[in-house]
Every structure is written in C-alpha cells, then in structure tokens.
C-alpha cells in the first residue's frame, strides 16, 4: 500500500493498493548487499486505474525511496530514507466497501478511493432524506385533500339541510 500522495490526479495516493513486481538495485546488483540497503526503486502494479504518464510498458509504476525529515523526541532533527510503501495483507471495512462499490457504480475519474466511500454514504443519506420528504409531502397533500373533501361533504350536507328546512 502506498503511504504518500505521489500524484493524486494520476491515481497514486496514500492508500493505493498494489502488488510489488520488481526490485531495481544500483551498481548492477541483483539483490540486497547488506541489511538496511534500499533498492533504487521498486515496480508496483496498482489495483486502481493509473494515468499512462506514470506506468511503464508492463503497466507498473516505479516507486523510488524518499527522505523524510522530522524532529525527534529530544528535539533533534532526524532524516529517514525509506520506500513509501507498507504491507497491506488486510484491508479495513471501508476499503472492502470501496472495492465492491467500484464494481457496481460508475463514479467520474476524478474521484479517488478515499473520496468514493464518503460520497456514496452521503448520497445514500441524501436519497433517504429526500425520499422521506417526498413521502411526508404526499401524506400532507392526501391529508389536505381528505380535509377538503370532508369539508365539502359537510358544506353540501348543510346546504341540503338548509334547503329542506326552508322548503318545509
């Protein structure tokens, strides 16, 4: 799983899940020389759609190590070089819902996985609210129509009663 936003518009954002396909080592090496060495890059095949500008002929994305700087516990500046990926053997329920939803719904391309679930849940909420509002308006209209009808019946009844009393 990618842990940084490499290019959100291209589909490379924090949380993108894929499969590591290749390690590329420096200086003609084919494997890690000593513990702690980082490869020059790794090639990842992501599950989501990626812009063609970022993929190679295999459909893989090259991810290079990055340096992260932060202040340590004792106020010292720390620099750490690492590949911005982690293992993602398990997925959260939100990720699972996104995977299932993407098969059934067609959202515009600019929506990322992290945006899709909130959009879906908010749209479902709005649909349920609108449905309730429409049902309430229909009930209100029926109620008004029933009141109008009963008033009309009562008025007609009074008119006939008045007519019969004035004739007799």
Word description of this protein:
- With 168 residues, the protein is α+β, with helices and mostly antiparallel strands.
- It has a domain at 8-90.
- 40% of the residues lie in helices and 17% in strands.
- The protein has helices at residues 93-104, 113-167; strands at residues 18-24, 41-46, 61-63, 66-71, 77-82.
- The mean pLDDT is 76.
List keywords for this structure.
single chain; alpha+beta; three-stranded antiparallel β-sheet; two-stranded antiparallel ribbon; 5 strands; rod-shaped
Short overview:
The protein is an alpha+beta fold and 168 residues long. 40% of the residues lie in helices and 17% in strands.
Shape: rod-shaped
| Order of strands across the main sheet | 1-2-3
Largest sheet: 3 strands, antiparallel
Q: Helical stretch count? A: 2
Q: What's the mean pLDDT score? A: 76
**What's the gyration radius in Å?**
33 Å
Listing every helix as H and every strand as E from the N terminus to the C terminus, the arrangement reads EEEEEHH
Structural class by SSE content: alpha+beta
């Amino acid at each position: 799983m990618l842990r940084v936003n490499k290019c959100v518009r291209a589909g490379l954002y924090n949380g993108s899940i894929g499969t590591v396909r290749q390690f590329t080592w420096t200086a003609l090496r084919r494997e890690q020389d000593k513990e702690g060495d980082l490869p020059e890059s790794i090639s990842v095949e992501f599950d989501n759609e990626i812009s063609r500008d970022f993929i190679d002929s295999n459909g893989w994305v090259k991810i290079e190590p990055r340096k992260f700087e932060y202040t340590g516990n004792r106020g010292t500046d720390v620099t750490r070089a690492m590949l911005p990926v982690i293992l993602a053997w398990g997925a959260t329920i939100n990720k699972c819902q996104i995977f299932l939803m993407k098969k059934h719904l067609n959202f515009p391309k600019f929506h990322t996985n992290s945006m899709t679930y909130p959009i879906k849940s908010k749209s479902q909420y709005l649909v349920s609210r609108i449905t309730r509002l429409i049902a309430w308006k229909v009930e209100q209209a029926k109620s008004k129509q029933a009141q109008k009808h009963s008033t009309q019946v009562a008025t007609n009844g009074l008119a006939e009663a008045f007519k019969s009393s004035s004739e007799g």
